[in-house]
Specification:
This protein has helices spanning about 10-20, 40-50, 70-90, 125-140, 165-175, 190-205, 220-230, 245, 260-265, 275-285, and strands at about 1-5, 25-30, 55, 95-100, 145-150, 150-155, 180, 185, 190, 210, 220, 240. It has about 290 residues and is an alpha/beta fold. The protein has a domain at about 1-150 and about 190-215 and about 255-270: NAD(P)-binding Rossmann-like Domain (Rossmann fold, 3-Layer(aba) Sandwich), CATH 3.40.50. A 6-stranded parallel sheet has the order 2-1-3-4-5-10, with helices on both faces. Strands 6-9 form a two-stranded parallel ribbon. It has a two-stranded parallel ribbon with strand order 7-12. The chain is globular. It binds NADP nicotinamide-adenine-dinucleotide phosphate.
């Protein structure tokens, strides 16, 4: 099996490539090979490589910036993915794509994990563009796979955003500055190693459709920060604030905990609890060659 991976050098892509290598021959692709913002580059690159499976880890990921440049988010996450889905359909390649918990957000009173059948309702341009993208992928073929995940952190860090939430917290704590972290957004920050392993398992089983893949349990970003410091034996001045006080440009869901029941029903082991995943991340980063 030939598996092309776009965004192979990104945070999730780097953890996914070695796991996919167990399933077949992996062809890592970058923006220089196929630029989702330049539709004319898409079909020729897909046709040139003719993969059996095309895994798209690439996205426009700047959640706040998308509020002031929605056309840039839409060009990549909506229009680009639509052209990619058509190109894959043309050569009968399975398309595997990643989406986000930010496709939810309209139901502010929600307090039980969201399943794949719950109606989305994004409250940001990023969420809107990602929802359109996952629909293009699923509409283009029943065998295509769309994986919604949340709050990714991995040892490679998000290329576009430069790092991840865990690294940001540790860096700010090292500076000794008081920290204020939002405590009214509940979700499940997820370790890219675990999301990659579950996604590779879904691909190995030939799964198609929409799946939620996140670590277990849930927390607010404030609770996540507190656990990062607890596990790292750090005690910076940490205080909770509201999203309104924080004042980010993009609105985010108050509750976007994703249920992994569908994943488990298929026999894919549900990723471990978020605290255990964080511990594994901290161990991996400590052992990573500098
Ligand atoms: N990060 C999160 O917290 C989070 C949460 C939920 C869902 N997701 C989804 O998970 C997936 C992986 O995210 P990630 O955190 O691994 O992202 P990442 O580390 O920022 O990597 C994104 C990759 O996309 C590539 N890319 C960006 N624009 C491109 C374009 N126009 N054409 C081709 N490639 C392009 C980047 O390549 P360059 O380096 O060349 O720019 C980079 O390799 C994305 O679909 C994202 O929406 C992420």
């Amino acid at each position: 099996m030939k598996i092309a991976v776009l965004g192979a050098a990104g945070q999730l892509g780097r953890d996914l490539v070695p796991r996919l290598a167990a399933l077949g021959d992996v062809v890592p692709l970058s923006r220089a090979d196929l630029d989702l913002a330049r539709p004319e580059t898409i079909a020729p690159a897909v046709a040139a490589h003719r993969p059996d499976v095309f895994v798209n880890c690439a996205a426009y990921n700047f959640v706040d910036r998308a509020e002031t440049e929605p056309e840039a988010a839409v060009a990549v996450n909506d229009f680009g993915v639509r052209v990619l889905a058509q190109a894959c359909q043309t050569i009968w390649a399975k398309l595997v794509h990643f989406s986000t918990d930010y496709v939810f957000g309209l139901d502010e009173r929600r307090a039980t994990p969201l399943s794949e059948t719950d109606a989305p309702g994004p409250v940001s341009w990023y969420g809107t563009s990602k929802l359109r993208g996952e629909r293009h992928v699923l509409d283009a073929g029943a065998n295509n796979l769309a994986v919604r995940t949340c709050g990714l952190y991995g040892v490679w860090g998000s290329g576009g955003k430069g790092g991840n939430f865990v690294e940001t917290m540790l860096r700010l704590a090292a500076k000794g500055a008081p920290l204020r972290v939002v405590s009214d957004q509940r979700c499940t920050p997820s370790y890219t190693a675990d999301v990659a392993a579950a996604t590779a398992d879904l691909i190995a089983r030939g799964a198609g459709g929409l799946f939620h893949v996140v670590n277990g349990g849930d927390c607010t970003w404030y609770e996540f920060a507190a656990e990062i410091f607890r596990q790292s034996d750090l005690a910076p001045a940490l205080a909770p604030i509201t999203s309104a006080e924080f004042g980010a440009a993009a609105k985010r869901p108050a509750y976007s905990v994703l249920s992994t029941a569908k994943l488990a029903a298929l026999g894919v082991p549900a990723p471990r609890d978020w605290r255990a995943a964080l511990a594994a991340y901290l161990a991996e980063r400590a052992n990573r060659p500098k």
